[in-house]
Amino acid sequence: QAEAGHIEDAEAFTPVLISFSNCSNATVSTLYLQNAPASTVRLNRCKDVTLKKLFVFNKGNARPAIDIKDCRNVKLHDTYVDAPEPLRHDGSSNEISISNCKTVSGQTLK
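Predicted structure:
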């Protein structure tokens, strides 16, 4: 429908494997996530969220594997990502802590 022009913002309707919006005090831990049609993990307007020990494999699209928007106090640690865009966090987020997170090429996530 998006290609035919019937849906203007097709990304808004593309499924995400894990999506939190307006939440607080959440933890996602020890998961193997693969082949999401959009972002694998999306956080939007969240606070006090911990993502740890995630293994994310999402080579099939150009969207970020982990997408953090307008969040506060997010901790991402001990995570491995194999995706074209491993992580995106915009300027509206603050107190983002990233430790021991790597990509398939050995890059450290920042």
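Summary: The chain is about 0% helix and 55% strand.
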